[in-house]
Recover the amino acids of this structure.
């Protein structure tokens, strides 16, 4: 097996065990785009696993702060090397290096993802929905940007829509995982919401507060809806198979949000997911959206939606050789 084949095999394994939803959607890309998308996923998955002390997104453990900061510093160093097309040894960073070289993914965007993990390491809490959306940008919106670049997107207006899909997906993730996150000491809900319901972040996993959790989870799902709608407008700028894959992924995640609404207080009795039949329905829905994207009329991006940081803005700079990078703020 050649080096290129080994790299793809590593990435294929990463996506197969790390995300059944994205694995299903990724099969809809054309082969060239799919390779880059899967390689980019492998790097994202690896970085997340390193910080959460987990394997392929499962069985997360709480790391000591110093160990987590050292791991984060290593991620910055290796990511900087990959984006600079320098030698790397880990397959995840070899994957990023190929994607960055082929598609011009900026180091700043790769670092923006790491800045989200940095917020987790610091145990950062979020006072307002605006701040929660800032976190969503770092861990998901910027992934949408990088994935869009893999699909050939360079227009800022289309990149905004790609970011919107990442924001919507992450809001859905946060809603689904409120209780699981609380069990490992994490909370992404706005503090003003917690104050409204007279509940602390440490109490979110307690069954007696399930009704309050359900009401906040519902709010997150409702907040995600306009971002899912906004993301659809970006489909018209994508090749049809990329549009199919993106629309399918969005449909799968949106269905999870709708399940949260339908389940009410019981939404956190187990981890919600989509069935095989529901994924197939999402594939069909995604195909329709992709084929109709040329003539469907989409509204302009709503002004009240959260706006991603512009490339011209100052970006938090990290010393790739520092033992422990400083905490990034949204």
């Amino acid at each position: 097996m050649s080096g290129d084949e080994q790299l793809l095999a590593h990435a294929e394994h990463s996506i197969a065990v790390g995300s059944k939803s994205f694995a299903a959607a990724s099969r809809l890309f054309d082969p060239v785009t799919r390779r880059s998308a899967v390689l980019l996923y492998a790097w994202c998955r690896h970085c997340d696993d390193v910080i959460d002390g987990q394997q392929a997104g499962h069985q997360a453990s709480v790391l000591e702060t110093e160990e987590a900061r050292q791991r984060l510093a290593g991620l910055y160093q290796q990511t900087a090397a990959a984006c600079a097309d320098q030698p790397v040894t880990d397959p995840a960073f070899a994957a990023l290096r190929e994607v960055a070289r082929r598609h011009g993914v900026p180091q700043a965007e790769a670092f923006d993802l790491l800045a989200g993990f940095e917020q987790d390491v610091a145990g950062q809490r979020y006072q307002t929905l605006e701040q929660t959306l800032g976190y969503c940008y770092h861990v998901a919106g910027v992934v949408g940007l990088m994935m869009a670049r893999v699909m050939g997107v360079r227009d800022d207006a289309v990149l905004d829509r790609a970011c919107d899909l990442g924001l919507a997906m992450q809001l859905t993730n946060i809603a689904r995982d409120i209780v699981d996150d609380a069990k490992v000491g994490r909370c992404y809900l706005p503090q003003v919401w917690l104050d409204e319901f007279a509940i602390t972040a440490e109490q979110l996993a307690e069954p007696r507060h399930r009704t309050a959790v359900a009401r906040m989870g519902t709010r997150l799902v409702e907040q995600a809806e306009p971002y899912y709608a906004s993301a659809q407008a970006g489909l018209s700028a994508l090749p049809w198979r990329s549009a199919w894959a993106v629309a399918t992924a969005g449909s799968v995640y949106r269905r999870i949000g709708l399940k949260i609404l339908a389940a009410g207080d019981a939404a956190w009795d187990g981890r919600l997911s989509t069935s095989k039949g529901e994924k197939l329905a999402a594939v069909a829905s995604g195909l329709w959206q992709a084929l109709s994207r040329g003539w469907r009329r989409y509204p302009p991006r709503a002004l009240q939606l959260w706006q991603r940081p512009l490339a011209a803005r100052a970006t938090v700079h990290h010393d790739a050789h520092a033992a422990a990078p400083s905490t990034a703020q949204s």
